[in-house]
Amino acid sequence: MRLHASICSGKRRTIAALGLFLVLCPRPGTVAQSSPAVLVSVEGHPPLTVTLDDLKRLPLHAVETEDVQEQTRYEGALVSDLLKQAGMTFGQTLRGERLQDYLLVEAGDGFRAVYALPELDAQFTDDVTILAYQRAGGPLPERDGALRIVHSGDQRHARWVRGVTALTVVRAK
């Protein structure tokens, strides 16, 4: 007996168990674990799914830091570049009420952290915030997941979200 989904968008996986073949389709808005991706949302614009391949096409930026009591280098794409692709504007337009808005970073395990938008804008700060996909030229350690937020201005790494799944610009109320 074969069971399969006749309508399935995105990647499909077939699992054989007890003679049954099931085709599993990711829920809308989710990505199979074999293809790390992050959902980037900016109010007033359609959400953007950014894959690891998409990230690698963006300019590479690095943050040198001490991690687990050793000097290391994280590499990835600027978070501001990802937000711009999703419709966010920075620079002169980031003023007034827009200074109340913030970036919510979410991980697959439910952990969340917040960044003020000026922390991500080169016209406000020299700090760099990247969505890292490499450490010291290789993949991130397994404990970090496929994607990790790294912010050069943080002395403590409490907001360095591991296993990032979503970046959402939120309007403060």
Secondary-structure map:
Layout (H helix, E strand, L loop, with lengths): L12 E5 L2 E5 L12 E6 L5 E4 H6 L3 E7 L2 E9 H7 L16 E6 L4 E5 L12 E7 L2 E2 L8 E4 L12 E7 L3
Parallel strand pairs: 3-12
Antiparallel strand pairs: 1-2, 3-4, 5-6, 6-9, 7-8, 7-12, 9-10, 9-11
Written description of the protein model:
- The protein has helices at residues 52-57, 79-85; strands at 13-17, 20-24, 37-42, 48-51, 61-67, 70-78, 102-107, 112-116, 129-135, 138-139, 148-151, 164-170.
- It is 8% helix and 39% strand.
- By secondary structure, the protein is mainly β.
- It has a five-stranded mixed beta sheet.
- Mean pLDDT is 81; it is low at 1-33.
- The protein has two helices and twelve strands.
- It folds into two domains: 1-30, no CATH class; 31-170, Sulfite Oxidase, Chain A, domain 2, CATH 3.90.420.10.
Write down the overall geometry: globular
Q: Overall mean pLDDT score?
A: 81
What's the assembly state of these chains?
single chain
Using the 3D structure, state the CATH architecture of the largest domain.
Answer: Alpha-Beta Complex
Total number of β-strand segments?
12
**SSE arrangement, N to C:** EEEEHEEHEEEEEE
Examine the coordinates and then state which fold CATH places here, giving the name of the CATH topology of the largest domain.
Sulfite Oxidase, Chain A, domain 2
Name the helicity range.
under 10%
Distance between the termini: 54 Å
- Please mark out the parts with pLDDT under 50 across 5 or more consecutive residues, or reply none: 1-33
For the biggest sheet, the summary is: 5 strands, mixed
**Portion in beta strands:** 35-45%
Main sheet: strand order: 4-3-12-7-8
Number of helices: 2
CATH superfamily annotation of the largest domain: Oxidoreductase, molybdopterin-binding domain
Number of domains: 2
CATH class wording of the largest domain: Alpha Beta
